[in-house]
Amino acid sequence: MTFVVTTPSFSGPVELLLQLISRHELDVLEVALSPIVDEFVATLRDETLHLDVEELSEFLLIAAILLEMKSQRLLPGRDSAEPDEEFVGWEERDVLLARLLELRTYSALADAFVSLFERANRAFPRLRGIDDGFVVHPPDLLAGVTTAQLAGAYLRGIEEKPVPVVRLNHVTVDAVTVAETVVALAQTLPTMGRLSFRSLTAGLSTRIEIIVHFLALLELCKLGHINLGQGSTFGDVQIEWLNESLGLEIGKVDSYEG
Question: Residues 6 or more apart from 238 whose CB is under 8 A from it?
Answer without folding.
Answer: 194, 195, 196, 197, 228, 229, 230, 231
